User: Fold these one by one.
Assistant:
Number 1:
Amino acid sequence: MYERILVPTDGSETAELAVEEALDVAEKFDAAVDTLYVVDTDAVGTGLGTEQVERIRAGRFGEMDELEARAREATEHVAERGRERGLPVEEHFRGGRPHKVIANFTEDHDVDLVVMGSHGRSGVRRMLLGSVTERVLRSTHRSVLVVDEREDES
Ligand code: ATP
Ligand code: MN
């Protein structure tokens, strides 16, 4: 039923919950797992030149290694959780607007299930869904499983 699962991660605790659920589903369906961290070029864009933004978009961070370190930390965590369970995870980094990059990725890689958190790093908990998740739901034709943060947190 599911052959290719994408877990977009921003390194947040809620994304980590989504990772566990994605791996559970992958195990059941013997699916391949991809993880993707998007450097939000709108958020980091102020203060950067267009050339730098172009490089980030292409996934080349150059001397901006702080960004790269954050991205790697997030995707490596997912890969590590997969390894512990004997599930290979492919890591990807991109730059751009997160929901667009995630939606494009689902098309380009023929992802048939996206598993993501209801919230992320910014922690605006008044909203039912974070804006990235809400926009991904609006932007992709693929199935999306939204994993809610634990009720006992907050
Ligand atoms: P907002 O960003 O709207 O202030 P938020 O940070 O609480 O709210 P989202 O950003 O929508 O919520 O995060 C929800 C989920 O979307 C995360 O758990 C993660 O799975 C995914 N996600 C968010 N940002 C990124 C990103 N930059 N790259 C990859 N995945 C992301
Ligand atoms: Mn966010």
Number 2:
Amino acid sequence: MFAHIQPLPADPILGLIADFHADANPDKVDLGVGVYRNERSDTPIMQAVKEAELRWHHAEQTKAYIGPAGVPEFNEGIRREIFGASHSALADRRAHTVLTPGGCGALRVGAEFLLRCAKAVKVWVSDPTWPNHVPLLGNAGVDLATYPYYRPGSGEVLFDEMMSALQAAGQGDVVLLHGCCHNPCGADLSEPQWREITDLAERNGFLPFIDLAYQGLGRGLEEDAFGVRLMAERLPELLVASSCSKNFGLYRERTGSLSVVSARAEQSQAAITHVNNVVRGMYSMPPSHGGAIVGLILGDEALRQSWVDELGGMRERINTLRELLVEKLAQAGASGDYAFIARQFGMFSFLGLTKEQVQLLRQQYSIYMVDSSRINIAGINRDNVDYLATAIAAVTR
Ligand code: LMR
């Protein structure tokens, strides 16, 4: 059965982790995989998480099964963060949330659930989108289509082109939107643009599926949820995949959530029984540790405040680095206008380099980024920014 199997190439993002570790150059710079890094290039455990883990160590009484929906305290707490405590979808019990193994788990469970609702489902994804969206959704069996999203050079959203492509999305179609901090391009929808897309969804009847993987790392916890909250208010149905990988730093704990918003409470209740049934047939139930920790943090005022403060510091650092990089690239004489990087949000931006230039940066300078020239802004610090800017200037000249 396995005799004919040939090895696959490394994953375009995760493969960079091993390549970076194997590189002996002391000046190497890791701008590859999307993990937050501090000034020392570490990805520390957040203080609120450490404290909650200590408390949980003493409080946890059993490791017995938890069930497909996961940790109730997590589901309630994260739903409040996503939609806002006073959102009408919560008051009307139209929104239900389950714990999933990361945002990836939420995307896949969401796709499987969609195929329970309709025999054939077309999901429209932005061009470009996070490469893993394709297998996560596509391998479930949905059809994928793309809508234009990003204008290289200006770094802006191709909004008119996006809107005209989405005119073709109607009843039975699903449109995947990045809630904030677009991965890979960093160009986010403005509030008026969210309003226009919501109007279009209302008119044409497509279902938005929002991937909210970076809440709190763009403009702020509330601001980053603007699109989700607006759509949950105005539209009868919505799916939201959220992740605690970046904003709680729980990457390897695989902690995320899937929320289903329906027109009425009974429909939402019914939908979640199908979601739970999908989960039971895929992995039975999610790992609970990350959910327990986030549930504890969100249920404790002091712990939550500590998390909000630390997350705010991470966000400010990323936004400052964006400005610093633009300034340093100009000083180093890099060819091109990079000012758009400071207008974007979240962990990622494209440098707009060719694959050959990206390879040169890797081979000659030990600077690692995805082949598309997506960089993880958080991998920059005051010690490596000059080296980075000089190297980029050299390969773009
Ligand atoms: C990224 O985009 O780098 C992260 O979301 C990590 C991943 O799984 O690709």
